[in-house]
Amino acid sequence: MTNPPDRDARLRELLADPRLNAAIRRPLQFGARKEEKVLEGFVPLDDIPGYLCPGQIPGRSPPTMYYGYPVPASLLEKHWNEEVRSYLDTQKMTKEALEDFQDPDPHKAFEAFLVTVLLDLADELCEETGWGIQMNKVYGIPGDPYHWMASLCGNYSGTDVPEPHIKRLREALGAEGPPMWYLAYGDDGQWDTKGSFMPFDPERLIRALGYGN
User: Fold this and answer.
1) Residue 141 pLDDT greater than 60, yes or no
2) Which of these, 177, 172, 180, lies nearest to 151 by C-alpha position?
3) Which of 34, 61, 74, 115 could share a disulfide with 192, CB 3.0–4.6 Å?
4) pLDDT tens digit string along 17-29?
5) Which of 133, 134, 148 is nearest to 185 (CA)?
6) φ and ψ of 3, to 5 deg
7) Strand partners, 67
């Protein structure tokens, strides 16, 4: 007669599976913050695994994830030059803002007003897509100096996005392929360990990971 399978050993085997994203493959390490270099290695996901959905792991909240498309630096700079810069009212600017606006280095001027560019672009994308588009800073866009994306939803919103809105956003950004899941930048990209600890249930995590017996 064979012994029943060692579920803890099975769990450790599943967590070591290379198919799990390297930046989040250890959901058991709730008490340990991920190092920045680990998060920077995050690779966008086609689909979000169950254990990154709220309520799947007792006593712990998963990092925030966003579903959408990257907004490259070139597009942000183009929007600044064509849609924002010439419409700003310099008469209403503070002394500091005016100095930034008049900086001889156009790149520094752009960075000083980046938030304004992001808000204006978000409003434009909302109008073009008919959806509540948000701009979020994320991990998963290597080589981009700003790391911003246009998100359709997040793992905490629980909202299904109709395909027409996805198509409109893709066309507006000149993107290709389906949207993907990205990891929120900074503290929002960490597991929330502030809640009261609850006993860990290996069986529940195995189910959340999408594996059978």
Assistant:
1) yes
2) 180
3) 61
4) 555 555 444 443 4
5) 148
6) -75, 150
7) 153, 181
- Mean per-residue pLDDT, 102-111: 78
CB 130 within 8 A of CB 168: yes
Helix (H) or strand (E) holding 129: helix 114-129
Q: How far is C-alpha 119 from the chain's CA centre?
A: 17
Greatest mean pLDDT among 34-43, 50-59, 79-88, 114-123: 114-123
Q: Chain centroid to CA 33: how far?
A: 17
Concatenating the DSSP letter of every residue in 6-69 gives -HHHHHHHHHT-TTS-TTTS-TT-TTSPPPHHHHHT---BSS--GGGSTTSSTT-BPPPEEEEE
Given a cut of 90, whether residue 154 has pLDDT beyond it is yes
Distance CA 66, CA 159 (A): 12
List CB contacts of 11: < 8 A, sequence separation 6 or more.
202, 205, 206
CA 139 – CA 109 distance, rounded (Å)? 25
3-state secondary structure of 107: helix
Of residues 133 and 35, which shows the higher confidence score?
Answer: 133
Whether 150 and 52 have beta carbons less than 8 Å apart is answered as: no
Mean predicted confidence (pLDDT) in 166-186: 95
Question: Rounded to whole angstroms, how far apart are CA atoms 131 and 125?
Answer: 8
Distance CA 181, CA 46 (A): 6
How many other C-beta atoms lie within 10 A of the C-beta of residue 57? 22
Q: What does the block give as tokens for 114?
A: 């980046």
**pTM for this predicted structure:** 0.74
